Amino acid sequence: TGTPIMDQQSFYGGVFVLSSIEGIYQSLRGVRNLLILAGFGAFFIALGFTMVLSRSLSRPLLQMETAARKIAKGHLETRVEVGTADEIGSLAMAINDLARDLKRYRDTRREFLANISHELRTPLTYLEGYAKVLKEGLYQSLEERDKYLDIIQKETKRLNQLINDLSELAKMEEGRISLNFQWVDIMEVLESVLSKTSLKAKEKGLRIQVDIEDDLPLLYGDGLRLEQIFLNLVENAIRYTDAGTVSVQAKLVGQKIIKTIVEDTGRGIPEDELPYIFERFYRVEKSRSRQHGGSGLGLAIVKKLVELHGGVIMVSSQPGKGTRFEVDFPVKVTLQDHEEGGK
Questions:
Q1: In whole angstroms, how large is the CA radius of gyration of the chain?
Q2: What residues contact residue 194 under an 8 Å CB cut-off, 6+ apart?
Q3: 84 lies in a domain?
Q4: pLDDT confidence of 179, banded at 50, 70, 90?
Q5: Are residues 149 and 281 in the same domain?
Q6: pLDDT above 90 (res 325)
């Protein structure tokens, strides 16, 4: 650095002080080297942390991928360990739930195929056997012949009903079923159902109680399908009730809902099986269900039909005391109301 020596306007010279700044450069080089080393260190630390973090995050995802591939190959007992309560844990629980649902569906499907095989084989065996008896004239009297013909007719109807149930459920699953909507009197529907089932109830010594409100509004629906819904529910109530009563009720709730109730004093349904009774192929008390007939399709068809009418079906039961089915249908004042409800 330098400073001039002056006296007013006269210049006498200057003073210069010189000093080497190499030390400063050395210090700057040292700081720069430290920064470079610190940068490399931070980079490798971050890289290592990232690798550890990515492995810890990807490990459960890889486990889920492996489990999903095993499930896809049919190993439905495979489960994923749920170690956290975050989104990954939620995904793991979803995969486990999927595996359980698929396993239950596979088991019920296998059971359904076994039941259907039995249900088809039994009438076919009767048909073949009694047809052979009639063809070869192996009967002693006309009464015996007529008895065999009655058995053939009964088993034919049973076989036809089973095939119809399978066909209807397949159409509903594919959305190909068509309904003939019109204004229907629910009282007429229930009276028709009761007239068709009263003989079965009488044969078992059951009492049917009817409580239907007067002047119920008309329902906009398919009369035959509505009758099918309640016919199935009432026949089930009679089939699984050994003694007591079967009650049928219908009432208007809040001017917007027509509530129908089918209740029995039968053997009831275990609580752990209630969530599954509307699933296709599902049968409660498998051995007894086989003795009473049926394929496990009736309630699945009923639920589909109720939903197609915009309704809701609910069930409650106590083993040994009975079962109660409630079906709620919305009241449609006009055709426009029905179309809006369908949307």
A1: 40
A2: 208, 210, 234, 248
A3: no
A4: confident
A5: no
A6: yes
